[in-house]
Structure formats: structure tokens, C-alpha cells
Amino acid sequence: MIVLSSSISDIQDILIKVFQQYAPKNSYCLADSPEAQYATTAACWFPDMEKLRTLPKLRLIHSVAAGVEHLNLSEIGSDQFVCRILDEHHQKGMFDYLHWGVLYYQRHFDRFMQQQRQQLWKQHNQNYSHDIQIGIMGLGHMGGYVAERFAAMGYRVSGWSKSLKQLTNVSSYVGVEQRAEFLAKSQILINLMPLTSENTGILSKSLFEQLPDQAALIQVGRGQHLVEQDLLNALDSGGVRGAIIDVTKQEPLSISHPFWQHEKIIVTPHIASHAPMSVVVAQILENDRRLNANLPLCHQVDLTNGY
Mean of the pLDDT values across residues 28-55? Predict the structure, then answer.
């Protein structure tokens, strides 16, 4: 039995609808229903942990997304497992979004849009993939896939992560010691890191100052990675060319936020990529089956690392 849990009413409604559509009728319930006492897995997005703690058989806290920051891992019992959603459709969707973002800067579309507002007809030299150095922060399930896809298209690609990665035609940089070298060559910096206590606020003034002049940022990690005022200052000073922002500290972004009106920023509403809901439900059902059959779980989270 799977219990559906979100403290956000709109998300709770979505969970109910998708499980109604894709899950067997008697395989799920809500936390305040009598059946919840038999639930072994919770499908969660910002779950009501107080209610979940009252369920005696609950052993698996399952994110309905690739990220797990919304689960508040510190509140999860030591006898419970945590899993997340990983899916090739999600990877492909993320690559499509990032490819668009890379082309936006590679082919000067940001400059052409500014010129249109000025009614200025001016051409810029065409850049090819081999002219562009892409730097990817985070080389896990998503970042590694994206890095190899860009490399296969002829881009110069480097990645930065906590451990050395062996990826085809991708230069791997590791740890604080090699971060400056990695940043110095990243003309387009893509953030795909999971959020941890160590990298909160990492996209800040000191990092922007280590990028090449006129580098661009594509922020698809987590909103808490970015020090927003530091980015605004870097854009206004001309050090950073532009930014595409898909995730922010506060979502939805407030109508008064300066990101909306900044001419060098594109804001998208956390839509870079989502796994199909049929896949989300199927993976949660499969992990609940595995849990009850004492089989290894798919996409289990290391609670020490937080991903």
C-alpha cells in the first residue's frame, strides 16, 4: 500500500489524479484514511512528516521527482529508506532544454533580441559547436548524460564533481582544488548539482569572478545554489553575459522579483524537464513491490550524501 503525501494542496490533488490514472485501484490511499495504517511506502512532495510518523508499517519515503531536498531528510527515521525518480525521458527532456540554452548563447540570440529592441541590424560571427566550452557542475545521472550528449555533438565539455568521472570525451575536474581551473574555461556554465549543505550558495560572487569574461549561466540545479544578488551584480557589471534561470529560492517567483524584468535574464517556471507521470507511478509501485519482497530498491538515496 502506498500513501500519498504532500503538504501543498495542489500537489496533493495532482498525486491523487495520477495514481487514479496509472495505479491499481486499491494500491494507494491518503494519510488520514484507515488503509494508511498498512502503507509501506509514501509517495511524497513536501510531505506532512507529522502524519507519516504515525504510520506503523511505513519503511520507504519515495520522492515523486529526481530531487529529494523537499523531503527534509533530517526528519526521516534511520530505519527508513529513501528513493527518487530517475528516467531516460527526464534525461532527454533536460538535454533538449539545455541544448536550446547553449544555442541561445552560441548563436548570439541574446544579443539579437537586445538589438531588436534597439532596432539595430548588426550581424555577429557564427560560432560552431567546437568553438564552445561547456562546463557542467554535477556529473551524476543527469549531468553525466548531458555532458556526453554535448561532447558527441562536438562541443568541448568539462565537468566538476565530488569524485572523478570517466565519461567519453569529457574532462573531469574534482573537488575544491580543481574548481578554479574548471571555471576558468567554462564559457557556458550549467549547474546540475543536487543540493547539499556544502554547495548551498555556491553560485556566488567569488565563483562568477573565476569564469571567463562574458560567460553565461544556465541554472537548472536548485534555487538555493544561487546567491541572487551576486548574479544581478555580475550581470550589471558586465562580467557575466547572461543567465537562464529555471529554479529559484522562492517558487513561484514573486511578481516584484528583479529577475522578471532584467534584460539579461530568461526565467522559466521550473520546467526544464519532468519524468512522465506514468513513469513516476510505475517506479514507485515497483519499489513498493521490491520493498515488500525484500529485494534491492531502485534509485535509492544515500542519506549521508543527500542524493
Answer: 94
